[in-house]
Amino acid sequence: MIDNDIARIHDLLARFSAGDHGAIVDLVAPAFFDYVPGPDEPTATEIYDRFARELKAAAPDLTVSIGDLARGDDGLLHGTVALHGTLTGPLWGIPPSGVHHTFEIPMTIRSVDGRWAFNAGLGPPATIAILRELELVNPADQMHLPPRHPVILSDLILKLAFTGQVADKPCTHLADVRVIHPAGDLCDDCAPGEVWPTVRLCLTCGHLGCCDTSTNKHARGHWEATGHALMRSIRMDEGWIWCYVDNALFQKRTLDAIEARLVASGSLPAEPA
Ligand SMILES: [Zn+2]
Ligand SMILES: [Zn+2]
Ligand SMILES: [Zn+2]
């Protein structure tokens, strides 16, 4: 018996691989696998479409296929997504490398109203290995050094990589945010001349500390010393929040909403545009 879901998915991926961008919109349901976006939030269709366009612009020969797609006893589809592509254009801040990459990603797929929701079975180590091969993350022996390129990664990719889900995890600390903008760009606790990949801002008191891959990990030390659980990147083009207690990552929209609330209540001056 022909499984129509499998036949359709193969067909749509073949269309995308041949250069038909519309195939992504026909393939990806608005709902994420574990999360239905609210009316003001981007849909999975929009996120995957943008992601696919960015990848195809960087690697015009990109092909995507799932050779082993099959229906499991759980009624869901399971398979291994294979991506092949040569980076001949810039990707998220890294210059073109000319390198051909192959990635295989375990995937679980559920039918949703004639389209499909996707769940990649990658944990943080496998995700970081992919980002490292793409030179978006430093080599393992250089993680404590500044990044080689000013990479900007989608906060949704970071959320998936570090929490394994699209839905927000519970966190009681968001009400503690008092500071949104950093007063500087140096670690408060490092000695002059020390280097770090990046600096994190404590959203409770404004402390600036070097990040978790730095040699000194002063941001983490600040949390351990004070219990201040929330931090963000000091890069204003990154807006995610990390909670050390709940291992939760919130996207920029959460920080923007908190900032708007603090400004409206008079607790925070409005930033000049
Ligand atoms: Zn929390
Ligand atoms: Zn430091
Ligand atoms: Zn603090």
Report on the biggest sheet: 5 strands, antiparallel
Beta fraction: 15-25%
**N-to-C terminal Cα separation, in Å?**
60 Å
Structural class by sheet pairing and helices: alpha+beta
What is the count of β-strands? 10
The best one-word shape is: globular
- Would you list the SSEs in sequence order as H and E? HHHEEEEEHHEEHEEEH
Describe the protein in words.
The chain is 28% helix and 19% strand. The chain contains seven helices and ten strands. It has helices at 4-17, 22-27, 44-58, 124-133, 155-163, 218-226, 252-264; strands at residues 63-66, 70-71, 77-86, 100-112, 115-120, 199-202, 208-210, 230-233, 241-243, 248-250. Strands 1, 2, 3, 4 and 5 form a five-stranded antiparallel beta sheet that branches. It has a five-stranded antiparallel beta sheet with strand order 7-6-8-9-10. A hairpin with a 5-residue loop joins β6 and β7. The longest helix has 15 residues, at 44-58. The termini are far apart. Bound molecules: zinc ion (ZN) (3 copies). One zinc ion binds at residues 187, 189-190, 196, 209-210, 216, 218.
